[in-house]
Amino acid sequence: MKRVVIVGAGYVGLTLGIASAKVGYEVLFVDINSEIVSSLNKRKATFYEKGLQEGLDALFNSKNDIAFLSLKDLYTCYQPQDSVYVVSLGTPLGPDSKALLSPITKVTEEVVRWMRDEDLLVLRSTVAVGTTRHLLENVKGLRNISFCPERTIEGKALEELHTLPQVVSGSNPLACDSAADFFNKITPTVLRAETLETAELIKLASNTFRDLNFAYANLLALIANEHSVNVNELIKLANFRYDRNIIAMPGLVGGPCLEKDAYILAQSYPGTESSLIINARKLNENMIPRAIQFIDALIKDDNMSVLICGAAFKGRPITSDTRGSFVFALIDGLSASGIKKENIHVFDPVVCKLVNGVTVLNLFDQLNPKYDFMVQLTNHEIFEDPQFNTYVNTKVSHIISFWPRKICRDNRSQSLYLGGIS
After folding, report:
1. Which CATH superfamily is domain 3-194 in?
2. Residue-level pLDDT at 411
3. What does the DSSP assignment read for 268-302?
4. Domain segments of the chain as ranges
């Protein structure tokens, strides 16, 4: 198969499309978002990812359109041929915190209308266990489907697609073989899962394990703060040459995967034991209210100013993705506490858009001469720059940081360091 059709050209789909084109596949994209389609046809990346724009420039240098609003539109420009269809939709949660099945079902039904007998459908979205088999049994005409969990980290996705082992599964031997053949051209190691359900669980298990680790670290941060202990020092000393300990460092845990995969895994097991997973997720979600509570106690009037450091959901590796970022909840909480939005500034080097009505500043020299509060949400390297560190320690009255910081000793009294002091 020479053609790969990516259905859903977001973070997962676009990076896989670039990786596929790099090894020689003809890659086409389908997305219902007209802005994404227009940008890709102009060869403009729709988000920041290291190497992404360069890949679009180098690998899609013809003048033909490469992105379409529907498969029908695609096949008015291109002749059908044997293809791998990759469905990489986001997985929204419903009001009950369970993954919605209808969007993936609808897209799968549309893809099947265009599939040839030996074409393959690769499901790349994160789903509840049993979803792939449900599609196989309920979508008329679907035969060859493979669930292949996406496991890259944003900011290094293009690198990891060519280095990480890829897990494949299949509804039948042909589907599994086709998926293995597809990914063998992209990465040197392909692992075959015995069942569709095994492959579905791998992604959920991996992300939820990380969420649990971070929740434990954040709980340690809360306990350490209660006893005036530097949690950064605590964890480093506990881990040093003690192989049985791999305690993570504390920090905010958001993003489009970790914020929901624990809920999807819990959905796959209705027993009360799943409360372990949900309680850890809730602990990670509740860190921002603690910061707002701390600020509330120090607010004197509504003219106080706040600098929020980090608009993306993480700082390392660098990404412009704000999905699952705590910046939204923080701005809402500050506004509810009486701080005016015009007195709130957000600083992030790569996010270029409004966040809850607040403009994101990208350059250090755009900041005010001083702020009453600084809240550090991510561990972007710029927040560890000596110049920035000096600015914060001398120009900010109160610091709330979820990441380790170098501080002046006289700043300790009315500041909150849940990431410890480095």
Report:
1. NAD(P)-binding Rossmann-like Domain (3.40.50.720)
2. 57
3. T--SGGGHHHHHHHHHHHTHHHHHHHHHHTT--ST
4. 3-194, 207-417
In this structure, the chain runs to a length of: 422
For 133, phi and psi rounded to 5 degrees? -65, -35
CATH superfamily of domain region 207-417: NAD(P)-binding Rossmann-like Domain (3.40.50.720)
Q: How confident is the model at residue 361 (pLDDT cuts 50, 70, 90)?
A: very high
Higher per-residue pLDDT: 91 or 279: 279
- CB atoms near residue 90 (< 10 Å): 16
Q: Which residue has the tokens 């979803």?
A: 131
Helix (H) or strand (E) holding 210: helix 196-226
Give the mean model confidence (pLDDT) for residues 96-123. Answer: 95
Residue pair 354/362 in contact by the 8 Å Cβ criterion: no
How many whole angstroms separate alpha carbon 298 and alpha carbon 291? 11
pLDDT exceeds 80 at position 409 = no
**Sheet of 67-68, strands arranged across:** 67-68, 26-30, 3-7, 83-87, 120-123, 145-147
How buried is 63 (Cβ within 10 angstroms: 0-12 exposed, 13-18 middle, 19+ buried)?
Answer: exposed
Q: Collapsing DSSP states into helix, strand and coil, what is residue 258?
A: helix
If you average pLDDT over residues 335-340, what whole number do you get?
94
Task: Say if CB 5 and CB 82 are below 8 A apart.
Answer: no
| Range 108-130 average pLDDT | 96
Task: Give the β-pairing of 166-168 and 83-87.
Answer: unpaired
With bands split at pLDDT 50, 70 and 90, how would you rate the model's confidence at 414? confident
Report the alpha-carbon distance of residue 344 to residue 371 in Å, rounded.
9
Measured CA angle at 377 (ends 371, 381), to 5 deg: 95
- Predicted TM-score (pTM) of the model is 0.91
Here the tokens at position 414 are: 């009315």
Structure tokens given for 99: 């993954």
CA distance 119 to 105: 18
Q: Same CATH topology for 3-194 and 207-417? A: yes
* Whole-Å CA distances, 30 to 5, 6, 86, 361, 370: 7, 6, 10, 33, 47
Amino acid at the residue 60: F
